[in-house]
Amino acid sequence: MPTNIAPSERSASRGASAFDVERIRRDFPILTQRIHGKPLVYLDNAATTQKPQSVIDAMVRSYAVDNANIHRGVHLLSERATQAYEESRIKVQKFLNAPNPREIIFVRGTTEAINLVAQTFGRVNLGKGDEVLITEMEHHSNIVPWQMICEEKGAQLKVLPITDAGELRMDLLDGMLTNRTKIVAVAHVSNSLGTINPIKTIVERAHERGIPVLVDGAQAVAHMPVDVQALGCDFYAMSGHKLFGPTGIGVLYGRLRLLEAMPPYQGGGDMISAVSFKKTTYNVVPNKFEAGTPNIAGSVGLGAAIDYVKSLDFTAVAAYESELLAYGTAALSAVPGIRIVGTASHKASVLSFVMDDVHPHDIGTILDQEGVAIRTGHHCTQPLMERLCLPATARASLALYNTKEEIDALVGALSKVREIFA
Amino acid sequence: MDLRELYQEVILDHNKRPRNFRVPDPVNRKAEGYNPLCGDKITVFLYVEGDVIKDLGFQGTGCAISKASASMMTDALKGKTLDEANTFFDQFHDMVTTPANVEVKSEALGKMAVLAGVREYPMRVKCASLAWHTLKAAMQAENHVVSTE
């Protein structure tokens, strides 16, 4: 990004009307740094997003001013910490439009949220010969937890295939929902392809047969408004760090009726209401699933991240991002020898690509020298890569602070790759 | 560091036209190598007679660094004894794992010394060493997958 252009000219050149990306960029301190002497172009947002100053400040305040353990403390600091923690729960509830704050369980991230459901819901509902339905584009975190519980219970993992463009084979869905299917687990947005899956339709079809649906929302929450009631899903998993919040904090939304019927996940403090050596009575939802001292500062940081996102016009954000994605798609398609992987008609934020005769790993190293951060590899979706007959892809993933100039920098850096591998 | 020091001509050449990129016939030892970081997979095939590597080759997918490394390795080891190959392994390993500011003796490695450039790119050291770890497994006839992790 050139620094010698007046801000007015710059925003004019970006052509986004309702959305002032220059103002947004100023909220993220990390973006001003240089990498190998070049301005940082951060295009690895599907791996983790950067944090606005307000999130960093909220976490510092949590430790510098309000730090104490939550629940049961009678002193003022504990009261303040408890209040901050529970306020974050309500912020998440409103953000996801969940009916009840008790349906929001704090976990470490999307991975733990899915493991929680597999190890509790799965443990009591799966039996020999039962089935779990996932899809071919799932992240390892929405494959392995199910594999583990299926193996333990003698259940079967079924996989809904995708098309070459990277869309779910919805025509096959009905046939794969059987009277043995106990749960469907599907990504809202694919981390490798950017495909936005038709969650509402999947939920409707599953619910017709009384099958609950878990949605892996890790890649969705930073790019579109999510309303769990409108989606109709029974579980929704997300990570704070992919929503401009801290690492180590995430959320499982679960329908209260299901959560109440599920056994606890881990045992320990805070998840009990009474303990004796003969018998323990478990606490109510959500505490039943939150054993031990939780990530208090993390929850506060996540709350601040939600405040930040809510201070923006999310419709304008989504419009800006889709303009950016279209721009990036056109720009990359114009580079000779580059093929975009994942060409679904509904896509968000992800530009996966391969380049003739150049391995993604080499692309990544050369781009880094140009200050452009992308991810290369299998993106924790090895079965998907196998399906696409690719060992790896290079992946540029966008967030609301990215600009068309950064896409141009990516394309410019790719010409360096071509130069070296001429 | 200039990228050209990592991607030297000889590396680019071996990437483009990898030597011994084939399954030798006959073969009596092989091993698979895998780099979970990037998904690279390589199989190294050996035909060992007595203690001499009579023939060797490799198959698989990988980045320029891993392919060039495998190509140069197979080129260098044909006709060598297993002991000599082990010495090469040690020297190569030393070269790519020595900190970038420390000089390494790499004359014995011949043109493979061009791979010393990976020392500047810690994330890429595994790319250069994958073929060698796989070779070591093949020499010991461990018929299972080795991993650089």
Alpha-carbon distance between the two ends of chain B? 26 Å
Number of strands of chain A: 17
Side by side, the strands of the main sheet of chain B go 3-2-1-4
How would you sum up the major sheet of chain A? 7 strands, mixed
User: Helix content range of the residues of chain A, please?
Assistant: 25-40%
Oligomer type: heterodimer
Model regions low in confidence, pLDDT < 50 over at least 5 residues of chain A: 1-16
Low-confidence parts of chain B:
none
Q: Class of chain B in CATH?
A: Alpha Beta
CATH class of the largest domain in chain A: Alpha Beta
Report the C-alpha radius of gyration of chain A, rounded. Answer: 22 Å
Average of the residue pLDDT scores of chain B: 89
- Named at the architecture level, the CATH assignment of chain B is Alpha-Beta Complex
Helical content of chain B (DSSP H or I, runs of 4+): 25-40%
How many domain regions of chain A? 2
CATH homologous superfamily of the largest domain in chain A? Answer: Type I PLP-dependent aspartate aminotransferase-like (Major domain)
Strand-residue fraction of chain A? 15-25%
- Number of helices, counting only DSSP H or I runs of 4 residues or more of chain B: 5
Approximate strand percentage of chain B? 15-25%
In round numbers, the mean pLDDT of chain A is: 94
Class from helix and strand fractions of chain B: alpha+beta
If you had to describe this structure to a student in words, what would you say it looks like?
The complex is a heterodimer of chains A (422) and B (149). Chain A is of the alpha/beta class and 422 residues long. Chain A has helices at residues 7-14, 21-26, 53-64, 76-96, 110-125, 144-153, 173-176, 199-208, 228-231, 256-261, 296-310, 314-333, 360-369, 382-387, 404-420; strands at 34-35, 38-39, 41-42, 104-107, 131-135, 156-160, 181-187, 213-216, 235-239, 250-254, 272-275, 280-282, 338-341, 350-355, 372-373, 375-377, 393-397. Chain A folds into two domains: 7-51 and 313-420, Aspartate Aminotransferase, domain 1 (Alpha-Beta Complex), CATH 3.90.1150.10; 56-310, 3-Layer(aba) Sandwich (Aspartate Aminotransferase, domain 2). Chain A is globular and about 75 Å long. Mean pLDDT of chain A is 94; it is low at 1-16. Chain B has 149 residues and is α+β, with helices and mostly antiparallel strands. Chain B has one domain: Sufe protein. Chain: A. Chain B contains five helices and four strands, in the order ααβββαααβ. In chain B, a hairpin with a 4-residue loop joins β1 and β2 (40-49). The chains are: A alpha/beta (422), B alpha+beta (149). The A-B interface holds A 357-362, 365-366, 369, 376-378, 382, 385, 391-392, 416, 420-421 and B 3-4, 6-7, 12, 16, 37-41, 61-65, 67, 121, 123-124, 127.
